[in-house]
């Protein structure tokens, strides 16, 4: 083979092999997310919420409470089915330097949880997801595709009950979002356009104002 031919051969070989090589290269893991919180209340969400977040992703949200207090995370807007776990710690500096106490486990949309509570000094929420796949809950009917979560946290007394006005997308009949008011005094549903009612239960298919009741099986709209 001439020198030119062998060069050509080498180039062709490189081109042929390149895609395979690229496919095998692992995608970078997105880690510019999460955070540390020690205020009396606040909220945090997945990157780009309510839009798609990058995957693969690894994030840590670390919430710290003063001694003798409890931490509660309210799952006001929560659409993840996999990937998020919670654990309690005596302290947490980083992955190698922490004092682990207890696993709370998977926080999943399917469990219909309203909140996660910890009476230990640190509550760690860890998101680890390689692909979106079927791990996101789609709110199909209204062409709304929401990814991840946007949740609030509050530092409360250890024996304090979780708040009675607490809501989630279930409480808002999937027709609205649950938000904390400014200063976190109240939680309530804010309805999507076309819906109304305390639980956003009234809308195009069930509207007492317009005398429309097209609910499942022709039943009466419930209050
Ligand atoms: C909260 O965190 C900030 C920044 O990390 C720190 O300066 C502050 O001392 C902390 N406050 C409490 C009450 O731990
Ligand atoms: C974790 O924190 C400890 C204590 O501050 C430090 O010595 C160690 O280098 C940190 N490790 C990593 C992986 O950041
Ligand atoms: C929200 O729904 C849960 C059950 O999913 C219920 O326990 C709770 O009382 C409801 N909250 C409100 C404010 O209606
Ligand atoms: C996230 O939740 C907080 C508190 O409920 C709310 O004020 C904020 O607007 C929400 N952000 C998004 C993007 O929904
Ligand atoms: C919000 O909460 C405060 C204090 O808990 C209460 O006084 C007020 O009436 C509430 N507002 C609404 C709109 O529910
Ligand atoms: C609502 O519809 C029902 C049956 O279609 C009718 O009997 C009733 O009079 C209507 N009420 C109003 C306020 O229009």
Explain what the structure shows.
It is a single chain. This protein has a five-stranded mixed sheet, with no helix packed on it. A four-stranded antiparallel sheet has the order 2-9-4-7, with no helix packed on it. It has a two-stranded antiparallel sheet with strand order 10-11. It has one helix at 3-24; strands spanning 35-37, 41-45, 57-64, 69-78, 84-92, 98-106, 115-118, 122-129, 149-157, 176-180, 187-191, 206-207, 212-213. The longest helix has 22 residues, at 3-24. With 223 residues, it is mainly beta. It is globular, with a radius of gyration of 24 Å. The chain folds into two domains: 29-160, Sandwich (Jelly Rolls); 163-222, Ribbon (Laminin). It is built from one helix and 13 strands; from the N terminus they run αβββββββββββββ. 10% of the residues lie in helices and 35% in strands. The protein binds 2-acetamido-2-deoxy-beta-D-glucopyranose (6 copies). One 2-acetamido-2-deoxy-beta-D-glucopyranose is lined by residues 112, 114, 165-167, 170-171. Residues 185-186 line the site of one 2-acetamido-2-deoxy-beta-D-glucopyranose (NAG).
The N- and C-terminal alpha carbons lie at a distance of 85 Å
Strand content: 35-45%
The DSSP helix count reads 1
Order of helices and strands, N to C?
HEEEEEEEEEEEEE
Q: Give the name of the CATH architecture of the largest domain.
A: Sandwich
The quaternary structure here is: single chain
Which word captures the global form? globular
Count of individual beta strands: 13
Task: Tell me the CATH topology of the largest domain.
Answer: Jelly Rolls
Ligands, ions, cofactors: 2-acetamido-2-deoxy-beta-D-glucopyranose
Low-confidence stretches: none
Rg for CA atoms? 24 Å
Mean pLDDT: 85
The major beta sheet can be summarized as: 5 strands, mixed
CATH class of the largest domain: Mainly Beta
Q: Spatial order of the strands in the main sheet?
A: 1-3-8-5-6
């Amino acid at each position: 083979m001439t020198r030119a031919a062998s060069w050509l051969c080498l180039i062709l070989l490189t081109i042929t092999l390149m895609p395979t090589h690229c496919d095998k290269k692992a995608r970078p893991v997105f880690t510019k997310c999460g955070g540390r919180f020690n205020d009396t209340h606040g909220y945090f969400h997945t990157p780009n919420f309510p839009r798609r977040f990058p995957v693969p992703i690894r994030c840590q949200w670390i919430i710290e409470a003063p001694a003798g207090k409890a931490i509660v995370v309210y799952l006001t807007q929560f659409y993840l089915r996999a990937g998020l776990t919670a654990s309690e710690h005596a302290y947490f500096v980083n992955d190698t330097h922490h004092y682990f106490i207890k696993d709370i486990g998977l926080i999943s949309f399917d469990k219909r949880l309203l909140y996660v509570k910890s009476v230990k000094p640190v509550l760690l929420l860890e998101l680890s997801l390689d692909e979106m796949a079927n791990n996101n809950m789609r709110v199909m009917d209204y062409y709304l595709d929401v990814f991840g979560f946007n949740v609030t946290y509050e530092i409360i007394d250890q024996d304090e009950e979780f708040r009675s006005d607490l809501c989630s997308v279930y409480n808002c009949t999937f027709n609205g979002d649950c938000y904390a008011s400014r200063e976190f005094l109240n939680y309530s549903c804010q309805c999507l356009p076309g819906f109304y009612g305390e639980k956003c239960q009234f809308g195009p298919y069930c509207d007492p104002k317009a005398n429309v009741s097209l609910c499942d099986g022709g039943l009466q709209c419930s209050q």
